[in-house]
Structure formats: structure tokens, C-alpha cells
Amino acid sequence: MAYREEVLNVKLAELLSHDGIISVPETIIKKGKGRRLPDVIIGNYLGVRVVIEGRIQGSGVKESLDRDCERRLEEGIAALTVAVVYPIPLRTSTFSELEKEMRGADLSIKVYTEAGHVGWMVTDFGGLSSTLRTAYEALVKEDVVNEAVMELGESIDDASLQLSVSRGTEERLRKLLVLPSAEEEVDESGD
Q1: pTM, full prediction
Q2: CATH, domain range 5-142
Q3: Distance (Å, rounded) from C-alpha 145 to C-alpha 142?
Q4: Distance in angstroms (rounded) separating the CA atoms of residues 15 and 99
Q5: Do 87 and 98 touch, CB atoms closer than 8 A?
Q6: What is the pLDDT of residues 156-180, one digit of tens each?
Q7: Domain boundaries in the chain?
């Protein structure tokens, strides 16, 4: 008997939960008209949404994980994603030994943030937990949120400037926002 990948993802979520990292395995997230199914969501790990994508070792798995993890960042599902490759022998562990074997197994992992990613490395479960904490700290130090806010502010300023010099913008905005024109404001005040 061999376990499906989802069993390993659920067990990983359970172990992370025991390690003090809250996690929710195999959760469906609705995004626009479609839906996404990240393998393990660590809901708001100290205020940052983290997704772990896990796959069983095989041909093309790392490339598939690269695409999925980067897509989770692009879609805004997570600010931090971690790819995990499970070794093949975990699929055939007895269920009573699966937790112990997963804790001691050599996992290939890769961490992705909006600022970039770290290359693949091999670690055990304790190293994965430690890497999650370290990646979180690095993400917070990178101050990605402040950079995004500054970029958004600059975009709003640029758009405002472009609108302010465009003829007809004032009248169109008044109609759109259902505001009285300058003449109507004067007439209503009785002047």
C-alpha cells in the first residue's frame, strides 16, 4: 500500500501544528471565478500568510513546485511559500510510524518570497520548522509591505496628476460621483 500525496500533506500539517505553527491542510481558496488548492496553508503565521506545497519525489517535481509556489505569490494567496519534496519511502511507511519517519526524513525544501527565493536544500522536519521561522523574520525585515505601499502611493499620485491636467475630468468625476457642479452649488446657496 502506498499513500497518496494528500496524506503526507495532512500529516505534515499535523506535525507543524504540534510544533506550534498553526496549519490547515488541503484547503480550497476561492480567488475570482476560479479556485486554488494549496497543499498546506499556515494561516497567518505571525500575521503573514504562508503556503506549503508538498510533492512526492519524482521526475519534474521540483519544476512543478517552482511554478506552483511562484503562482501562489503572484495570485496573492501567500506572502511566503515553501516547496517540500517528500522522499519516496514515506509513501509506504506504516501509518503508526509515519509521524516518526516524517520527522526524521530528508526533505528537499525551497523558500519563496516576493523578494526572491533561496535554492533547494535538504533538511529534516526540525529544519523545515526553523526555516519557516527564519524566512518569516527575513520577510518582515525586507519590509516588502512598506515598499508596496510606497509604490501604490506613487501610482496614485501619478494618476491624480494625469487626471488633473486632462480636460473634462472634473465634469466626468462630478457625474460619476453624483456631485453638483460649481454653478449648482452657487444656485443652491442662494447667491
Answers
A1: 0.66
A2: 3.40.1350
A3: 9
A4: 7
A5: no
A6: 888 888 777 777 777 777 777 777 7
A7: 5-142, 147-189
